[in-house]
């Protein structure tokens, strides 16, 4: 795919620095864009993933960095021969693993432009356009999700970083800024964090980083359908208050990672508002569906939350990293995270937004460009149409699975993920779990598709996460055929053993 014809000047004069000239960059850049375009055009010819030996790629790479400059064409050739075999093709239409991490090509252009400009937004003055485009795009997204103007936000590195900031804000609210001043010794009345077993692992991790400690995270059981049980939540909070602890944060989820369960935000908000507890809604994955008015009942009560994370770098189509944290009380957020060292003071202080006060890093890339390119090039209608297509496809697949003997749909179809199990007669418990994991693994090894298995309520299931940009109904039909072939083979092997 790659053409090695590009000219290269031999650079062996160690006394001089030779940057890649704009002209050389132009040549290599054109070739690279060509490479990416061909990669996307022909992606279906590839296996979705290839199982390679751990360490094989590292072994093929030089142990030490090169002393001498090397031609870009050689680097690219090594990328193809050494690295590409170890790349999982997330943009492949038969990729049904984890979650869709769509990267529309318009968003690639915005991302490339950001990198090419090479600026760092450490203050408004450091690049006013960076700040003001980010404010605009975040506000566009707010409107696209049907949220009121009370919400303001910023782009963060990841959903985990967004949740960390939300939990730190919760900590400073319940402690009246005591932790920010006194640090971890402010623990006479331990603060508690509540979430469901369906919540993403980042909730526990960020609560731990924020100083709550794993012992102060309460896992609230779920109701049938996977929604956090608000009655049990209330009872747990009463119990904790009675023993001298203080409720600090509740993390609800709109679109749980394993099975896309939706917490009942309204019911959880009733509890949160009763005690003034910070309510953070992790809609990293599910948030994209709120583009569609018909989906918004899935987070009814959202206006009563304190913070929300939505990651356009998942289903929506913006290149990673593009996770948006929205808050209602932005003055509290900037009080907690704000800094103003002498070297960053400017005459515009107080008149403009300083995005460093909205996130953990001081600097930021011109990340809004990739959202701006995406939203403008697709339009809200284009994005909505694609999300709607995926929701319809998930329901169609669930119907096919339900109608097939020995197959079961394990989750309520709330979004684009269908959790399924093949249940051969006479197989249950650990044997059924082993069968599920084995056929998923075999299908993945075939390279025909990629799925992830996950454990929900103590049972392993195969997750079919639909929603890659190029995934149409015929890809799902083919997957369904492949799934039946692989399960039949594995069931025969398991029963013969
Ligand atoms: N929250 C949910 C619901 C997720 O599904 C995920 C990732 O799958 C995350 C958070 C973590 O996202 P990130 O990798 O951006 O931190």
What would you note in describing this structure?
It is globular, with a radius of gyration of 25 Å. Strand 3, helix 8 and strand 4 form a beta-alpha-beta unit. The protein has 3 domains: 2-86, no CATH class; 119-365, Type I PLP-dependent aspartate aminotransferase-like (Major domain) (Aspartate Aminotransferase, domain 2, 3-Layer(aba) Sandwich), CATH 3.40.640.10; 375-496, Aspartate Aminotransferase, domain 1. Residues 1-9 have low confidence and may be disordered. The protein is α/β, with parallel strands linked by helices and 497 residues long. It has helices at residues 22-41, 56-60, 72-83, 105-117, 128-144, 159-174, 178-182, 201-209, 230-242, 265-275, 330-337, 368-402, 429-446, 473-496, and strands at 95-96, 152-156, 191-196, 217-220, 246-253, 278-282, 307-310, 323-327, 407-409, 417-422, 450-456, 459-465. Pyridoxal-5'-phosphate binds next to helix 6.
């Amino acid at each position: 795919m790659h053409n090695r014809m590009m000219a290269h000047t031999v650079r062996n004069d160690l006394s001089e620095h030779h940057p890649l000239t704009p002209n050389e960059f132009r040549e290599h850049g054109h070739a690279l864009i060509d490479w990416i375009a061909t990669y996307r055009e022909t992606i279906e010819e590839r296996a979705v993933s290839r199982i390679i030996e751990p360490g094989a790629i590292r072994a093929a790479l030089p142990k030490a960095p090169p002393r001498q400059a090397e031609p870009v064409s050689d680097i690219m050739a090594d990328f193809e021969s050494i690295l590409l075999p170890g790349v999982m093709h997330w943009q492949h239409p038969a990729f049904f693993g984890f979650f869709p991490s769509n990267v529309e090509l318009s968003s690639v252009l915005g991302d490339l432009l950001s990198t090419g400009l090479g600026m760092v937004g450490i203050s408004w003055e450091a690049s006013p356009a960076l700040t003001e485009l980010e404010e605009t795009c975040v506000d566009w997204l707010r409107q696209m999700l049907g949220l009121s103007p009370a919400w303001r936000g910023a782009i963060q590195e990841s959903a985990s970083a967004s949740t960390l900031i939300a939990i730190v804000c919760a900590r400073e609210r319940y402690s009246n800024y005591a932790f920010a001043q006194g640090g971890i010794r402010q623990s006479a009345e331990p603060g508690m964090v509540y979430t469901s077993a369906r919540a993403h692992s980042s909730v526990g991790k960020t609560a731990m980083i924020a100083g709550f400690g794993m012992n102060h995270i309460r896992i609230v059981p779920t109701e049938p359908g996977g929604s956090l049980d608000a009655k049990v939540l209330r009872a747990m909070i009463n119990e904790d208050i009675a023993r001298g602890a203080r409720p600090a944060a509740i993390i609800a989820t709109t679109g749980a990672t394993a099975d896309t369960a939706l917490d009942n935000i309204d019911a959880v908000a009733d509890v949160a508002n009763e005690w003034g507890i910070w309510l953070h809604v992790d809609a990293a994955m599910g948030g994209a569906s709120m583009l569609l008015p018909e989906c918004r009942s899935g987070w009814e009560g959202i206006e009563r939350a304190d913070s929300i994370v939505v990651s356009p770098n998942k289903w929506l189509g913006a290149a990673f990293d593009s996770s948006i944290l929205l808050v209602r009380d932005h003055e509290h957020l900037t009080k907690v995270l704000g800094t103003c060292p002498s070297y960053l003071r400017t005459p515009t202080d107080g008149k403009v937004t300083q995005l460093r006060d909205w996130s953990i890093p001081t600097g930021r890339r011109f990340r809004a460009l990739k959202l701006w390119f995406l939203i403008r090039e697709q339009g809200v209608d284009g994005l909505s149409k694609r999300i709607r297509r995926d929701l319809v496809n998930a329901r169609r697949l669930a119907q096919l699975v339900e109608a097939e003997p020995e197959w079961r749909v394990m989750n309520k179809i709330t979004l684009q993920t269908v959790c399924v199990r093949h249940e051969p007669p006479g197989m249950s418990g650990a044997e059924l779990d082993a069968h599920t994991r084995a056929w998923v693994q075999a299908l993945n090894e075939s390279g025909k598709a990629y799925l992830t298995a996950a454990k929900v309520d103590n049972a392993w299931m195969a997750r079919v996460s639909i929603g890659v940009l190029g995934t149409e109904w015929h890809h799902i039909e083919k997957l369904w055929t492949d799934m039946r072939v692989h399960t039949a083979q594995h069931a025969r092997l398991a029963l013969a053993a």
